[in-house]
C-alpha cells in the first residue's frame, strides 16, 4: 500500500471532527503556490474599479483548463486593462479556500467539494460560486489483470485523492449503490479505499500497491499509460453525462466592492471557454503550455490527448449536480446536511452571457435571493 500523507489525513480527520464537515481536497494535479504575471498591459488601458491588481487562483490541472487557457492567451489581462492579473497556483482545495478567506486571492477556480466546505464552514459568509468552468474528467481506472468487470472491484484496493474530496465522495457513493459496505473514515470494508495523493498514485499503481483508482484527469490517463484500463467514466452516472468538476468562486467582500473587476474576469472566462470549444486542438496545446509553465513539465501526448478529450468546458455551473454531490457526502456520513441556499450568485455571469448572445444559466434554487 502506498504511503498516505499523514499531514493531509490528520487535517482531513480534524476538520471532520470539528464541523462535522468534509475536509475537501482539490481534484487534481498541482504545483506549489506561486504568483507571477508576464502578460503585457495594452497601451492606454485603464484600471478596472481603480484596482492595482486582481488575484486569481487555480490548479495547474486540465480540469482547470479555462484558467490555463485564459492566462496563456492573456484574456484575463486584456479584460482587466491596466489592473494587473496576478496569479497563484494551488495543490489542494483547503489551501485555496484559506487563501481566499485571507484575501491572498480574490477569485479562484476550484472543485465543488471545497466550495461547499468553504461556504458551509463560514456560515455562508466567505464565498459565492459565480460561474461554471468544467464538467467530467473523472474515471475509475483499474489493473485489467486483477479487475475485468465492475463486480470485481469488491475486495480490491482502490485509490481516491483524499479523504472526503470530490472523487472520494463519488466513489463511496458508487460503492454504496453496489450494496457494499465501507467505513468512510478508515476506508476499510468490502472495498479498501486508499487515500493517495494524485502525484504518487501512478507509481502506486505501477508497483501493484493499488488495484485501481477513482481519479480526475490527467491522473486517470497517466494510469492508462501505465497499462490501466478505464472501467467506468463517472460522466455515465450523471443525467446528460454532465456534472460539475470545476467552479469559479469569489470572496463575497470582493464581489460587493468590485463588481466590475468580477465582470472582467467572467468575460475572460466566457471568452476562454468559447475559444476552447471552437478550437479544441489549439486549446489543448495552450493549456499544456501553461501547465508546463506552472508545474515545470508538459504532459506527453499519450496522456494529454485522452485527458483533454474527457473534460468538457462550460459556463454553466451545473448547480443541480453540486447539490447532488453534497447529498452523496451526507449519505456517506462525511458531511452534516448543509444549507447551500445562496451559495450561487450568477447575476454577473448572466449579464455577460446575455451580452454575448448566450442563454442564462440556473442556480437550481441555490442562488442569492
UniProtKB/TrEMBL annotation:
<keyword id="KW-1003">Cell membrane</keyword>
<dbReference type="GO" id="GO:0042626">
    <property type="term" value="F:ATPase-coupled transmembrane transporter activity"/>
</dbReference>
<dbReference type="GO" id="GO:0042597">
    <property type="term" value="C:periplasmic space"/>
</dbReference>
<dbReference type="InterPro" id="IPR044527">
    <property type="entry name" value="NrtA/CpmA_ABC-bd_dom"/>
</dbReference>
<keyword id="KW-0732">Signal</keyword>
<keyword id="KW-0813">Transport</keyword>
<comment type="similarity">
    <text>Belongs to the bacterial solute-binding protein SsuA/TauA family.</text>
</comment>
<keyword id="KW-0997">Cell inner membrane</keyword>
<protein>
    <submittedName>
        <fullName>Aliphatic sulfonate ABC transporter substrate-binding protein</fullName>
    </submittedName>
</protein>
<dbReference type="Pfam" id="PF13379">
    <property type="entry name" value="NMT1_2"/>
</dbReference>
<keyword id="KW-0472">Membrane</keyword>
<feature type="signal peptide">
    <location>
        <begin position="1"/>
        <end position="25"/>
    </location>
</feature>
<dbReference type="InterPro" id="IPR010067">
    <property type="entry name" value="ABC_SsuA_sub-bd"/>
</dbReference>
<dbReference type="GO" id="GO:0005886">
    <property type="term" value="C:plasma membrane"/>
</dbReference>
Amino acid at each position: 500500500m502506498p504511503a498516505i500523507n499523514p499531514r493531509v489525513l490528520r487535517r482531513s480527520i480534524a476538520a471532520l471532527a470539528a464541523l462535522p464537515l468534509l475536509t475537501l481536497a482539490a481534484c487534481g494535479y498541482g504545483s506549489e503556490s506561486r504568483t507571477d504575471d508576464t502578460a503585457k498591459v495594452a497601451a492606454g488601458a485603464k484600471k478596472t474599479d481603480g484596482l492595482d491588481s486582481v488575484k486569481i487562483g487555480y490548479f495547474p490541472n486540465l480540469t482547470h483548463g479555462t484558467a490555463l487557457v485564459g492566462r496563456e492567451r492573456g484574456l484575463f489581462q486584456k479584460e482587466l486593462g491596466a489592473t494587473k492579473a496576478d496569479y497563484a497556483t494551488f495543490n489542494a482545495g483547503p489551501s485555496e479556500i484559506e487563501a481566499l478567506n485571507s484575501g491572498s486571492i480574490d477569485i479562484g477556480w476550484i472543485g465543488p467539494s471545497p466550495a461547499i466546505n468553504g461556504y458551509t464552514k463560514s456560515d455562508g459568509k466567505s464565498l459565492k460560486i459565480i460561474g461554471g468552468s468544467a464538467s467530467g474528467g473523472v474515471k475509475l481506472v483499474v489493473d485489467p489483470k486483477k479487475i475485468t468487470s465492475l463486480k470485481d472491484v469488491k475486495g480490491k484496493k482502490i485509490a481516491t485523492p483524499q479523504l472526503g474530496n470530490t472523487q472520494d465522495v463519488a466513489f463511496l457513493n458508487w460503492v454504496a449503490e453496489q450494496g457494499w459496505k465501507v467505513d468512510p473514515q478508515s476506508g476499510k470494508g468490502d472495498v479498501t479505499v486508499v487515500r493517495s495523493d494524485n502525484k504518487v498514485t501512478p507509481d502506486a499503481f505501477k508497483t501493484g500497491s493499488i488495484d485501481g483508482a477513482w481519479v480526475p484527469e490527467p491522473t486517470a490517463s497517466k494510469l492508462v499509460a501505465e497499462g490501466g484500463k478505464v472501467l467506468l467514466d463517472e460522466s455515465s452516472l450523471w443525467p446528460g453525462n454532465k456534472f460539475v468538476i470545476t467552479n469559479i468562486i469569489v470572496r463575497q467582500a470582493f464581489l460587493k466592492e468590485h463588481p466590475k473587476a468580477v465582470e472582467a474576469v467572467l468575460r475572460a472566462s466566457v471568452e476562454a471557454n468559447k475559444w476552447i470549444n471552437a478550437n479544441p486542438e489549439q486549446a489543448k496545446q495552450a493549456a499544456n503550455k501553461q501547465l508546463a509553465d506552472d508545474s515545470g513539465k508538459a504532459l506527453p501526448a499519450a496522456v494529454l490527448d485522452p485527458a483533454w478529450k474527457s473534460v468538457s468546458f462550460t459556463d454553466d455551473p451545473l448547480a443541480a449536480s453540486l447539490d447532488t454531490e453534497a447529498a452523496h457526502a451526507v449519505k456517506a456520513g462525511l458531511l452534516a446536511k448543509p444549507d447551500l441556499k445562496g451559495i450561487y450568485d450568477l447575476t454577473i455571469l448572466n449579464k455577460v452571457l446575455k451580452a454575448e448572445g448566450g442563454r442564462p444559466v440556473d442556480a437550481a434554487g441555490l442562488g442569492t435571493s
